[in-house]
Amino acid sequence: METRELFEKAVKDSESLSERPSNETLLQLYALYKQATEGDNLNNAPENPFDFVKKAKHEAWLALTGKSAEDSMNEYIQLVEKLKG
């Protein structure tokens, strides 16, 4: 299978994990997914400083600036495989 196919399978697998990952791991999955599918985060920071979830997601994705889609997909795949045990 090619990376894109493995990535799409990992995305599907992530939706049916036996245990809910930690919030930190969920943020990592989110950021890797966004970087893999959309590239660098060019969005402005959330306007509401008290919306901690949006802020955390924004910052997690922003931290991956410059990482290639291929590398992001591979890291996502590896993380999901690790979570699956």
Keywords:
single chain; 85 residues; mainly alpha; Acyl-CoA Binding Protein; 4 helices; flat
Helix/strand order, N-terminal first: HHHH
Q: Which class of secondary structure composition applies to the elements?
A: mainly alpha
Tell me the number of helical segments per DSSP (H or I, 4 or more residues long). 4
CATH topology: Acyl-CoA Binding Protein
Major β-sheet profile = none
Estimate percent helicity: 55-70%
Radius of gyration: 13 Å
What is the molecular shape? flat
**CATH class annotation:** Mainly Alpha
Mean pLDDT: 96
Please, how many domains? Answer: 1
The oligomerization state is single chain
Distance between the termini: 21 Å
Walkthrough of the structure:
By secondary structure, the protein is mostly helical. It has a single domain, classed as Acyl-CoA Binding Protein (Up-down Bundle), CATH 1.20.80. 65% of the residues lie in helices and 0% in strands. The protein has four helices and no strands. It has helices spanning 3-14, 23-38, 52-62, 69-84. Helix 1 (3-14) crosses helix 4, helix 2 packs across helix 3 and helix 2 (23-38) packs antiparallel against helix 4 (69-84). The longest helix has 16 residues, at 23-38. The protein is flat. The model has no long low-confidence stretch (mean pLDDT 96).
Quickly describe the structure.
This protein is an all-alpha fold and 85 residues long. It has helices at residues 3-14, 23-38, 52-62, 69-84. Helix 1 packs across helix 4 (69-84).
List the helices and strands and how they pair.
Layout: H1 3-14, H2 23-38, H3 52-62, H4 69-84
